Amino acid sequence: MASSVRERLETYGPAVFIWAVVAFASFLKTGPGVMRGTLPGNDDYMRLVQVRDWLGGQAWGDPVQDRMFPPDPLISHWGRLSDVLIGGLVKVLTPFLGAAGAETAALLILPPALLLIAVLLVVRLATQLSKAPWVALSAALTAGLCFPVFYQFYPGRIDHHGLQIVMALATAAAIIRAPKSPNFALLAGALCGLSLWVGIESAPYVAAACIAISVNWVLSQETRAGRPLMLFGLSMAGVTALCLLISPAQSRAAAACDAISPVFALLTAAIAAAMVIAALTGTKIKAPFARLLTIGGLGLAAAGVTVALYPQCLHGPYADLNPRLTEVWLSNVSEAKPFHRTFTDNLTVSLAMIIVPALAIFGLFVLRPKETVITKILNNTAARTLLIFMVLTALTGLIQTRMFSFSGALGAPLAAIFVAHMAVKADRFELDLTKALARVGLLALLSPLFIPAVIGLAFPTSKIVNEQTAQQEPADTIKIECSEPAALRALDAFPAGFVITQIDLGAPTLTATRHSVTSAPYHRNEKGLLAAINVYLGTPDEARAVARNIGADYLIACAEFSETKLFTKMEPEGLLANLIAGTPPAWLEPLPLPTLTGGQENPVLAYRIKSAE
User: Fold this and answer.
1) Could you tell me the pTM of the whole model?
2) How far apart are CA 191 and CA 261, in angstroms?
């Protein structure tokens, strides 16, 4: 028993230590802002609004955000699982900390807690691949220092991506266990169904899970090899159907391609049917190639049925988006950009995205070096499963860079094999001090932050230079940005109304005030986005017509936004350009906003829209 405890401490102790260091550093980055009400991104603000509305009495089955473009309110496409985690923490902590304190505590606690689970899962997966020395520490370092991964777990980062990363790792771990313990296939299928409910961004790794468990069946020679395949399919379809059943009525009725809907219920049911048929025929079809043809054909049939009934989804969730929104908004969203554009814009960030998948490929080569790569893929369930997950999410990351968060986490166990392999090279030195220094140097050199940071310093982009310049401000100076609640709360001094907001001001304004807004960066907010874009890019007269047509009461703007730079460059004579130049039209009355704490002028430009004469 003592030996077992010691082994666990040796395996997971480094993970807890690395997690604590990363969590503390992350708190220094965003924690003070969270305690002021500032969150890392738009989705975090919007999630908090959704949680507040639910805790405030909005029905579970009511996904409508009434304050998001009131003429045609936003119907949220997010699942409620994240709301349950955040809202549950708030409910538990409220009796001890009060409502406001409980909310802040939940924002600070939940992301690091999920990060701890993610790091422990990576270590577990890595030690399943290899028992070599330094693997556990290497896995913790690789996962904990992978920027696309730990960025999703900053304090205040309550959007669902961190939860999805944890679910993806748990799904891979369950699939690896399934051949020997088939009930783990039930867990893997359930996690896939829940993942689709949380957000359709999960689809690539759900597809990877389907492929991985199918390949396990194809390559297995065991008589009961079909049981995990069957259990996975039935569990995934059943949980997907259950999640759809407890989703809002709008989700059950509409054939949506961007959220859980009848489309995904049908697809998972068809995949389950394909897996059940394959499993039942597997007792007679044992040759791997014949099994591959069987499961491949049945899988294509399942996809074909879904596409035949819902062909619109073949083009993705943004296929019907207004072309003007694609040009002005979506093509400029950083996480939705294809990788080649991110590579052009920011070399450092791009390298940070791909460094762990690249190290993972090296890890595959050094794992059991006497075996060929093909042999490892065919015979090693853990390596094969993680490779499938990593490659598929990395390929989708080339289309939308947000998926590199998943490929980084899923590639970390394999990458750790390479890092540990290199750390062992330090044993060649005879002196203990030299050996220790060499090992520390190798671990640092191969950490996911080192190479991108060095290249970033050697070839700085304009964005990095700007960040370095910003850091030269006095350490005791806290500059309040337009999107921070500390600046936006001043708007509550005026009667509640309908505010025309720039796209990146909408969600923070909803969080900080009682006002309604036109727009936030969500494709389902199409009419609101178009209205806001037409106001800010239009001439003053065109903007006035749009503002009065939608019944808006106020308009706000921010001079410092990258969105502002883009819009003023696109339309130098547009309304936004006039506002930044300090020449608002006569139909806009400037609103005096009080000076912020510390004597800083409020950066928000606020106006009342005068009624028509």
Assistant:
1) 0.94
2) 17
Q: Secondary structure of the chain: what % helix, strand, coil (to 5)? A: 70, 5, 25
Residues 359 and 137: their CA atoms lie apart, in Å, by 15
452-486: pLDDT as tens digits:
877 777 666 544 334 333 334 444 556 889 999 99
Structure tokens belonging to residue 550: 């939608």
Q: Give the other-Cβ count within 10 Å of 332's Cβ.
A: 16
Question: Which of 496, 518, 494, 500 is closest to 556 using CA atoms?
Answer: 500
The amino acid at residue 136 is: A
C-alpha distances (whole Å) from 395 to each of 205, 388, 398, 406 are: 11, 11, 5, 11
Distance CA 498, CA 313 (A): 34
Pairwise CA distance, residues 406 & 213, whole Å? 19
483 within 8 A of 558, measured Cβ to Cβ: yes
CA distance 603 to 588: 18
Query: Nearest CA to 536 among 527, 547, 526, 525?
Result: 547
Instruction: For residue 394, give every residue at least 6 positions away whose Cβ sits within 8 Å of its Cβ, in sequence order, or none.
Output: 354, 357, 403, 404, 407, 411
442 Cβ contact list (under 8 Å, min separation 6): 419, 422, 423, 425, 426
Q: Which amino acid belongs to residue 23?
A: A
The C-alpha atoms of residue 223 and residue 229 are separated, in whole angstroms, by 13
Q: pLDDT, tens digit, for every residue of 225-264?
A: 899 999 999 999 999 999 999 998 888 888 889 999 999 9
- Fold designation for 485-609: Rossmann fold (3.40.50)
Per-residue CA distances from 355 to 180, 314, 348, 533, 587 (Å): 33, 31, 10, 37, 53
Q: Give the residue among 372, 47, 97, 351 at the shortest CA–CA distance from 199.
A: 47
Residues 567, 113: Cα–Cα separation, whole Å: 39
Are 392 and 220 spatial neighbours (Cβ–Cβ below 8 Å)? no
Sequence ranges of the domains in the chain: 2-38+77-421, 485-609
Report CA-CA distances (Å) from 541 to 565, 571, 578, 579, 603: 21, 14, 12, 14, 25
How would DSSP label each residue in 28-92?
A: HHHHHHHHTT--SSHHHHHHHHHHHHHHTT--TT--EETTBSTTS-EE----SHHHHHHHHHHHH
Tokens of 412: 């970390």
